[in-house]
Amino acid sequence: MPLSKAKIGETYKIKGIEGKDKVKKFLFTLGCFEGQEITLISKLAGNYVVNIKDSRYAMDENMAKSIVLSA
Amino acid sequence: MVKMTLTGNADKVGKEMSEKMSLMKIAIAGNPNSGKTTVFNAITGKTEFAGNWPGVTIAKKEAFLKKKFNPYRTAIKIVDLPGTYSIVPFTGEEAITRDFILGEAPDVIINIVDGANISRSLFFTTQLLELGIPVVIAINKSDIVSKRGDAVDLEALSKELCCSVIPITASTEKGLNDLMREAIRAGKEEKPQTAPDFPVNNSDDEDMARQKFVDEIVEKCMVKKRDATKINLYDKIDRIVAHKWLGLPIFFAVMWAVFSFSIGGLGGYLSEYFNEVVFGEIVPDAVNRFLEGLNINPLLQALIVDGVIGGVGAVIGFLPLIMILFFCLALLEDSGYMARVALVFDRFFKKIGLSGKSIIPMIVGSGCAIPGVMATRTIEDVNEKRMTTILTPFVPCGAKLPIIALFSAVFFPDKGWVGPSMYLIAITIIVIGGLLLKKIFVWENTSQFILELPEYKLPSMKYAFWQMFEKAKAFILKATTIILVSNTLVWFAQAFGWNFRPVEDQGLSILATLGRAIAPLLIPLGFVGWQLAAAAITGFIAKENVVATLAVLLSVASEEALNVPGSALTQFFTPVTAFAYLVFNLFTPPCFAAIGAMNSEMGSKKWLFRALAFQLGVGYTLAMLASQAGSLIMYGKPASGFVPAIGVSILIFTGVVIMIRKAEVKRIKLGVEV
Q1: A-B contacts at Cβ under 8 angstroms
Q2: Rounded to 5 degrees, what angle do the CA atoms B467, B472, B473 make?
């Protein structure tokens, strides 16, 4: 299941990241990669606010779709 | 690296050695928005811009360490680097950090670790530790850490990473003394940094092993009380200020408040006093009396009073307005709200081929277009970057504020909406301009948007005052250099003819002839008079010059101050054409300095030319529209030059249609979708 279909307030385990290597690498440095936890905090103005490690990030739907969660 | 030194000639090595002996270089590196620039400002006494959002610092900055922190005689140079999450670059600005660290080899690296997110920051830390350069870790925002109830075992962390760890709070300068003492000690010692040792399994790659290593350290050294995954107060605020429908109105309300407070409110009031009383009466009267007492040549007296004081004074009079605007903007930027604005705009900007990242250059551009254009460096996608570079200068910068203030004071004294409306027009232009660019040029948008949302904080008054005085200093410097020089030239050009003799009639002067050569181009816009052309042209040197030049030119015609309702300006404009002239000066290409910045960010003359043509086209068309259609609606008849305006409109329209058609053909050929 992609992050774009996740429920608000729930924490998930990341199954994998799809897409370009550059984006994957970048997400990796934030701590967003296979096996890590991610929480969907809110959906705001078409963006997804998530918690990775101890920080909040806002990402657009395109990026949210590329983050695959274990259901 | 070692090989290079060995093969290099002995002289060079010797020189490098002696340079190293005399100067210690300390680099500040860390994640975006971890507070590097705040530390830099505190220890060097500089006032570099440090907003509460990631990616504010876009180029490295250097300064010497303050004496307060430096007990030695030798000078210590501090280098502030753009933030990065990893030593492997992702965007252009991050590449600078890597290049600097690898290429310039500082004596010590101070790694600022965001105490609010230690586990993420340590990834970059472990990469820094492998460079062999002594590293001192500063855990910043330690006040937030303790407020959260989290605890970091500094000793254990120091042991695990083989380097000193100092807790600091950059905003209150707590711990900076200890930090610098430790950094200097490490620099003097010159003991190479021990790299962290972590096993790299065959199945995992190096990065994965690094993450695991970091996770283990965090597990050992940190006790977390707060559950970051829980929805907190800030999230609730986000849900309101970045709300789908409320976000935009809230942003407009905030900006409206800021601009009307600085243009119409306190800023406007103080500027009025400055312009009318200080530079309108007190200063010129005093100087006139003084010069008359000296029995000075009347022409020289006119140069000093009308040229220098009249022109530069007309600009400096707006100083209070600029100071108050920057004070408000600094408070807003420090609060963390701006990152949310990017979020709100992302959805709208997506439609025109941009993303929320483009809003940051534009917000910076509301201060000055030059750093605004430079901030496009944070955008990875080349098309998005180009488009942002083209659109950013449409945001009225601080230098355009005097023009806005002057015209609103003269023509719309009781309509407070005129000034702030220029910012609304700017946003509209950016949206329509973006749509148009997307149609005219063929490009694919592949950008994905992700932005860290910093925690909100109470904006620092000290920082806002600092920023305000820094901007005031820069403004006065500009007024007394560039604007003073161009004003003197303008004064000469309007007082002398081509035979270099003073002219009786300003209409025979050098400036008049030059202005007349350009003036026909402004006829379709309803602007009649070489003076208006001359003022617009000097505006390209610095936008404040539009005000200064008008002040110089009209001081001959009238004794009255320029910025009062019914001043000499009214002989050139109706309120509608005045509005159009304002539009023209605001939305045609920016000043030369900003064009220079565009040139270096575009990296191609072809794109620079396209950008300037686009900006000129947009500003020109819009001013024409405002002037002609506005006059037709407000007065029942068009402004002068209506017939040529129709001709020009047809030309522009056909040109745009042809370009769009061409792009469509090209798109089909390449198989690109809009």
Answers
A1: 123
A2: 100
Verify whether the Cβ–Cβ distance B239 to A44 is below 8 Å: yes
Question: Which residues of chain A are within 8 Å of residue B238 when distances are taken between CB atoms?
Answer: 42, 44, 49
Residue B26's contacts (CB-CB under 8 Å, 6 or more residues apart) are B65, B76, B77, B78, B79, B106, B107, B108, B109, B110, B183, B184, B187
Closest CA to B51 of B469, B333, B401: B333
Alpha-carbon distance B114 to B223, whole Å? Answer: 16
Mean pLDDT (whole number) for B559-578: 82
Flag the least confident range among A5-14, B215-224, B237-246: B215-224
Q: How far B119 CA lies from chain A's nearest CA (Å)?
A: 7
Residue A15, chain B, CB below 8 Å: the answer is: no
Write the CB contacts of B629 (distance below 8 Å, at least 6 apart in sequence): none
Q: Tens of pLDDT along B39-81?
A: 999 999 887 777 666 666 767 788 999 988 888 777 899 988 8
Residue B103: DSSP 8-state: H
- Cross-chain CB nearest to B343 (options A28, A45, A51): A45
Burial of B122 from C-beta contacts in 10 A (0-12 / 13-18 / 19+): buried
Taken in order of first residue, the domains within chain B and their CATH numbers are 2-223 (3.40.50.300), 249-449+464-670 (no CATH)
Check B228 against A54: CB less than 8 A apart. yes
Q: Nearest Cα to B108, choosing from B76, B136, B85, B74?
A: B136
A54 and B347 in contact by Cβ < 8 A?
no
- This complex has an ipTM of 0.94
Q: Which two tokens stand for residue B164?
A: 């000193």
A26 contacts chain B (CB < 8 A): yes
Q: Which H/E stretch holds residue A58?
A: strand A55-60
Q: Which of B114, B224, B229 to mutate to test the interface with A (most CBs of A within 10 A)?
A: B229
Are residues B235 and A23, on separate chains, in Cβ contact within 8 Å?
Answer: no
Q: Helix, strand, coil: what percent of chain A each, to 5?
A: 25, 45, 30
Nearest residue, CB atoms, B120 vs list A46, A49, A55: A55
Q: Where are the alpha helices (DSSP H) in B66-204?
A: 92-104, 118-129, 142-148, 154-161, 176-189
Q: Do A58 and B343 touch (CB under 8 A)?
A: yes
Which residues is B28 bridged to in the sheet? B80, B110
Examine the pLDDT at B9 and tell me if it is beyond 50: no
> Do residue B239 and residue A59 have CB atoms under 8 angstroms apart?
no
Please choose, from the candidates B153, B164, B166, the residue with its C-alpha nearest in 3D space to the C-alpha of residue B217. Answer: B153
Burial B304-338 (b: 16+ CB within 10 A, else e): bbbbbbbbbbbbbbbbbbbbbbbbbbbbbbbbbbb
Among A37, A52, A53, A61, the strongest candidate for a mutation testing the B interface, having the largest count of B CBs within 10 A, is A53
The strands making up A67-69's β-sheet, listed across from edge to edge, are A67-69, A11-17, A37-44, A47-52, A55-60, B450-453
- Write the CATH number of the domain with boundaries A3-69: 2.30.30.90
Q: Check A31 against B120: CB less than 8 A apart.
A: yes
A41 touches chain B (CB under 8 A): yes
Q: Given a cut of 60, is residue B621 above it in pLDDT?
A: yes
Q: Do A60 and B88 touch (CB under 8 A)?
A: no
Nearest by CB to residue B450, choosing from A31, A45, A59, is: A59
Q: How many residues does chain B have?
A: 674
Average pLDDT over every residue of B528-532: 91
Q: Where are the domains of chain A?
A: 3-69
Structure confidence by residue, pLDDT tens digits, B387-405: 999 999 999 998 998 999 8
Q: Give the CB-side neighbour count of residue A24, counting CA atoms within 13 A.
A: 12
